[in-house]
Each structure stands twice: as structure tokens, then as C-alpha cells.
Specification:
It is a single chain. By secondary structure, this protein is mainly alpha-helical. 70% of the residues lie in helices and 0% in strands. The protein has ten helices and no strands.
């Protein structure tokens, strides 16, 4: 992998630019191996300038999450609140939007980073769970509940169903940022997701026999 050249050194940088540089390095090297001086160099500023905005790597990581991932969750929460169509359409829209804004962007490397380093940095893991995972699960759960109430989806244990829906997408991200480097040909993520959606909605669909129970 070619390492991006440091940005041209200058006296200042916006916090967002520093967070962008941190994201690049976190995904490339992992959280533990990334140093603040590396982030400053990648952003093209001095370490002292970086400290004007962030006093630690942890603060930088939180900025990455707040600037890049949390807005997508908020967008999906707005979609949920405004949606008037079917639960199937809602679920598809939520998952498609997440993939478009996160799964096919630089932020796609964050889940793999968290899986790899959560035990070594439990406070960051707790932060990620509270600000990303819980909100994501609530969105999927709300779509499931809506479909079950309407009779569109068959009754299921919602918490377990959330796990089953999210797990294949999470595995796709982890694979693409780890073992996929050893594949002779690249997997088409959109085809993978389309198959996942087909299996998902076939499994959720209320059958005639079940609807009479």
C-alpha cells in the first residue's frame, strides 16, 4: 500500500482536517500504532497546532466518529421518523443509506479497527457502542417492530434478529479491510448486499399460515 505524502506544512488547520488525517492513519495502522505526531505530519501542521484542538488520540478518535458516522445515524433517524411506506422499504432505505455514506467510504475501516482493538481500549469501545452501535441497533429494531406490527414481517425475537441482519454487513466490512487482500479477485459488495437483502426479506416475510396464527 502506498503511503500518502504528508500535506504541505502550514501554520494552522481546521479540526475537521485533523480528524480526516487521523481517520486515514487509524484505518491504515490501527489506533495503537498511530501517534499524534504522525497525525500532525499527515495534516501538514505542527504537533503543537494539533494540541490546540485535541489533547489526545482518544479525542481525535471521538471527533472522527462525531464528524463522520454520527451524522449518518442522525440522517437515518430522520428517515425513520418521516417514512410512511412499507417496513421493507424502510429497512432497505436505512441499510442502503448506511452503506452509501459509511460502507463505501473511508469510514468503512472503523468497524474492523474496533473489533481488533476494543479489548485494548475499553473506554473507546464503550464510546463507540454508546454512540454508534446502540443507535444503529435501535434503527434496525424500529424497522423490524414496524413490520411486525403491520403484519408485513413475521414475529421474531427482535434483539436476535438485529444481530442476524447486521452481522453479514459487518463481516463484509471486516473482510474487505483484512483478508480480502489475499483474494485473487475482488468481491462485488453491491452483489453481496443484494443477496443479503433477498435472504433477509424472504426470512422476514409473513406467510399465509403464520398470519392466521
Amino acid at each position: 500500500m502506498n503511503t500518502p505524502a504528508p500535506r504541505k506544512r502550514r501554520k494552522d488547520a481546521r479540526p475537521g482536517e485533523l480528524a480526516d488525517a487521523a481517520l486515514e492513519l487509524f484505518v491504515e495502522r490501527g489506533f495503537a500504532a498511530t501517534r499524534l505526531e504522525d497525525v500532525a505530519q499527515r495534516a501538514g501542521v505542527s504537533k503543537g497546532t494539533l494540541y490546540l484542538y485535541f489533547d489526545s488520540k482518544e479525542a481525535l478518535f471521538k471527533a472522527v466518529i462525531q464528524d463522520g458516522i454520527v451524522p449518518v445515524l442522525a440522517e437515518n433517524e430522520a428517515i425513520l421518523a418521516q417514512h410512511t411506506g412499507s417496513a421493507r422499504e424502510l429497512m432497505r432505505t436505512l441499510l442502503d443509506n448506511w452503506w452509501k455514506k459509511i460502507g463505501q467510504t473511508r469510514f468503512a475501516g472503523i468497524p474492523k479497527l474496533m473489533v481488533a482493538e476494543a479489548r485494548n481500549f475499553p473506554e473507546l469501545a464503550e464510546y463507540y457502542v454508546d454512540n454508534v452501535i446502540k443507535r444503529g441497533r435501535q434503527l434496525v429494531g424500529a424497522a423490524l417492530e414496524r413490520g411486525m406490527r403491520s403484519g408485513e414481517f413475521r414475529p421474531l425475537d427482535i434483539e436476535t434478529a438485529i444481530d442476524v441482519i447486521i452481522a453479514p454487513i459487518l463481516m463484509l466490512l471486516i473482510w474487505r479491510h483484512s483478508l480480502a487482500c489475499g483474494q485473487s479477485s475482488e468481491q462485488d459488495p453491491l452483489h453481496y448486499l443484494d443477496i443479503h437483502m433477498q435472504l433477509l426479506f424472504d426470512g422476514l416475510r409473513q406467510t399465509g399460515k403464520e398470519s392466521q396464527v
